[in-house]
Amino acid sequence: MDVFLLRQSIHTFAEIIFSRSGGPGGQNVNKLNTKVTLRLALENLAGLSGPEAARLENALGSRLSHTGEKSTLVLSSSEERSQRVNLDRAYARAEALICAAARIPKKRRPLKVSKAARERRLRTKHHLSEIKARRRRPAGEE
Question: What is the pLDDT of residue 121?
Fold first, then answer.
């Protein structure tokens, strides 16, 4: 993955929409368009190999909106009062999401449970069993 090429294509092909943020903030919220919505078509991304693009499609499945053949990543940022800071955060989040999703996941190698861990588990089970047995009444009592 070529991160520089990826970053450049994100900045080039991202469609940016500014709107009013919700929530508290007084007059600033009512007057200024500080919320940033970033829409990015995955087909326009450069710097990704074929398998990376396929992993990206799978990993970001729930975050993508599909229109016909196009898959579009939609992000919004409205945490700050500054439009510029929200825009930078949206770009950074898009890049981080794409890089994380395109990365090959580590293969999980199951390990054998150690003898000490097995004994600890059985000791705990036995201890809890004794506690519960003491709560019960003897059979003859009622």
Answer: 97
Concatenated DSSP letters of the chain: --HHHHHHHHHHH-EEEEE---SS-THHHHH---EEEEEEEGGG--S--HHHHHHHHHHTGGGEEEETTEEEEEEEE-SSS-HHHHHHHHHHHHHHHHHHHHSPPPPP---PPPHHHHHHHHHHHHHHHHHHHHHSPPTT--
Which residues are CB-neighbours of 23 under 8 A, at least 6 positions away?
29, 78
Predicted confidence at residue 142, as pLDDT, reads 55
Question: What does the alpha-carbon distance between residue 99 and residue 15 come to, in Å, rounded to a whole number?
Answer: 19
Q: Which tokens is 1 given?
A: 């993955």
The structure tokens listed for 122 are 């059985």
Ordered structural domains, the chain, with CATH:
3-102 (3.30.160.20)
Confidence of residue 114 (pLDDT cuts 50, 70, 90): very high
